[in-house]
């Protein structure tokens, strides 16, 4: 278990003064840090077809990028290359633990854990990201420079798939050591060059763009065959300009579009399902054969422990205190009675169901039914 130590800074002050505003170095943010994964294990994950990985190298200022899977690293030599593996929380439960201390930000804003292994002199170059990130220094040391957003910076591609930024003025210039954490808000230029062989863990966040929200909404309407209302104009008078779409016409189109998102139930169902869809592949395996409800009850009563699949996105929406709850798990929507709020919270908050929760599930037919369905989807699994 990792505990975040903000030292003299309270969480409230961190959120008010730094979150989405200013970069911050949290020196020794994880005291006595122990890497949850070795570089060899990371290299093993990069050999898997379903896991997204890339190697960025910069020997002699020649930037190269290759995508995995990777079997053999010998061609890259001893320096100036970085292996980056995406969504390691989906595949490596010990590494997934690194996300937990940041759950003061809700599940739906959390993206994934990216881990990089860098040789001396390596980095991905100075760049900007669109998302907030906490970068935890694991083994080794890394020279980091971070600046404030600056509209005068320009972006360029030293390689077709690498976007870098022009030289920037830093407000943080530090050599990070194991357990140090850098918080970098969106749009802040940063550059991390490895001093020796090092591991970096990036807890990344997601913030949907308007384009993606509108596309997701369109997909939701199509999938659910929701046609909605159609444009009407019973008050139409003869036009003097047959080619013109008038401001009044446009205003009615705007209202028609707004009506869709002004429908609270539709918006909730759409957004919950959209935002809980996994972006990267999940390591879900459906049990074969499926479990029966009474088998699950028996296992829970015997003290078996259930874990949640790494990277599984679980959120809920309850519009008013007595309303049914919409529970969203990996894009699936389940309607749960208002009285079951604690059950829903347990599923969303606990990465392992504790003994008391497991016992309460075992005794209640409705909860057992829900849990059996989730286990049979491969979303929760027995670990002991
Ligand atoms: C890295 O871990 O090498 C890159 C992290 C970042 O700058 O976003
Ligand atoms: Co970055």
Describe the structure.
The chain folds into three domains: 195 residues, Jelly Rolls (Sandwich), CATH 2.60.120.650; 47 residues, no CATH class; 91 residues, 50S ribosomal protein L16 arginine hydroxylase, Chain A, Domain 2 (Malonyl-Coenzyme A Acyl Carrier Protein, domain 2). Helices cover 26% and strands 23% of the residues. It is built from ten helices and 18 strands. The strands form five sheets. The protein has an eight-stranded antiparallel sheet, with helices on one face. A three-stranded antiparallel sheet has the order 10-7-12, with no helix packed on it. A hairpin with a 2-residue loop joins strand 8 and strand 9. It is globular, with a radius of gyration of 24 Å. Bound molecules: succinic acid and cobalt (II) ion.
The helix-strand sequence is HEHEEEHEEEEEEEEEHHHHEEEEHHHE
Give a list of the ligands.
Answer: succinic acid, cobalt (II) ion
Distance between the termini: 19 Å
- Tally the helices: 10
The coarse silhouette is globular
Query: Using DSSP, what is the number of strands?
Result: 18
CATH topology value of the largest domain? Jelly Rolls
Could you tell me the mean pLDDT? 96
Rg over C-alpha atoms, rounded to the nearest angstrom: 24 Å
Which superfamily, in CATH terms, is the homologous superfamily of the largest domain? Cupin
What is the count of distinct domains? 3
Approximately how much helix is present in the residues?
25-40%
Regions with little confidence, pLDDT below 50 for 5+ residues: none
Going by helix content, strand content and strand pairing, the class is: alpha+beta
Under the CATH scheme, the architecture of the largest domain is Sandwich
Q: Strand sequence of the main sheet, in spatial order?
A: 1-11-6-13-5-4-2-3
CATH class of the largest domain: Mainly Beta
Proportion of residues in extended strands: 15-25%
- Biggest pleated sheet: 8 strands, antiparallel
């Amino acid at each position: 278990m990792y505990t975040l130590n903000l030292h003299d800074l309270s969480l409230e002050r961190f959120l008010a003064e730094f979150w989405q505003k200013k970069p911050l170095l949290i020196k020794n943010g994880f005291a006595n840090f122990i890497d949850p994964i070795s570089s060899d294990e990371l290299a093993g994950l990069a050999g898997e077809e379903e896991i997204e990985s890339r190697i960025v190298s910069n020997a002699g200022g020649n930037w190269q990028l290759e995508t995995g899977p990777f079997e053999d690293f010998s061609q890259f030599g001893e320096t100036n290359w970085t292996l980056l593996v995406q969504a390691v929380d989906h595949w490596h439960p010990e590494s997934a633990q690194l996300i937990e201390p940041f759950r003061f930000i809700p599940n739906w804003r959390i993206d994934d854990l990216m881990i990089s292994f860098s040789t001396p002199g390596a980095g991905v170059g100075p760049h900007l990201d669109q998302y907030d990130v906490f970068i935890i220094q694991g083994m080794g040391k890394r020279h980091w420079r971070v600046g404030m957003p600056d509209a005068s910076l320009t972006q360029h591609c030293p390689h077709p798939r690498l976007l870098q930024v022009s030289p920037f003025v830093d407000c943080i210039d530090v050599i990070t050591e194991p357990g140090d954490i850098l918080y970098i808000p969106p749009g802040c230029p940063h550059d991390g060059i490895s001093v020796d062989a090092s591991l970096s863990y990036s807890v990344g966040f997601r913030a949907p763009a308007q384009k993606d929200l509108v596309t997701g909404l369109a997909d939701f309407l199509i999938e659910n065959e929701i046609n909605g209302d159609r444009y009407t104009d019973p008050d139409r008078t003869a036009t003097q300009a047959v080619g013109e779409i008038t401001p009044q016409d446009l205003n009615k189109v705007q209202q028609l579009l707004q009506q869709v998102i002004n429908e609270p139930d539709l918006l909730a169902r759409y957004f919950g399902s959209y935002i809980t869809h996994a972006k990267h592949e999940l390591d879900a395996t459906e049990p074969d054969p499926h479990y029966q409800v009474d088998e699950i009850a028996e296992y829970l009563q015997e003290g078996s422990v259930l874990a949640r699949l790494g990277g599984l996105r679980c959120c809920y929406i309850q519009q008013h205190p007595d309303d049914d709850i919409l529970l969203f798990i990996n894009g699936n929507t389940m309607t749960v009675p208002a009285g079951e709020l604690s059950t829903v919270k347990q599923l969303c908050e606990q990465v392992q169901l504790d003994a008391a929760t497991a016992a309460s599930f075992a005794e209640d037919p409705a909860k057992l039914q829900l849990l059996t369905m989730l286990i049979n989807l491969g979303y929760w699994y027995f670990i002991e």
